[in-house]
Amino acid sequence: MTEKEIKQIAIYGKGGIGKSTTTSNLSAALSDMGYKVMQFGCDPKADSTNTLRDGSYIPTVLDTLREKSSVDAHDVIFEGFNGIYCVEAGGPAPGVGCAGRGIITAVELFKHQRIFEELALDYVIYDVLGDVVCGGFAVPIREGIAQHVFTVSSSDFMSIYAANNLFRGIQKYSRSGGALLGGVIANSINQGYSREIVDDFVSRTSTQVVEYVPRSITVTQCELQGKTTIEAAPDSKQAQVYTSLAEHIAAHEVSTIPAPLGVTELQQWAAHWSDKLLLQAEGKVAAGEAI
Ligand code: ADP
Ligand code: MG
Question: Among 3.90.1150.10, 3.40.630.30, 3.20.20.370, 3.40.50.300, what is the CATH number of 3-260?
Answer without folding.
Answer: 3.40.50.300
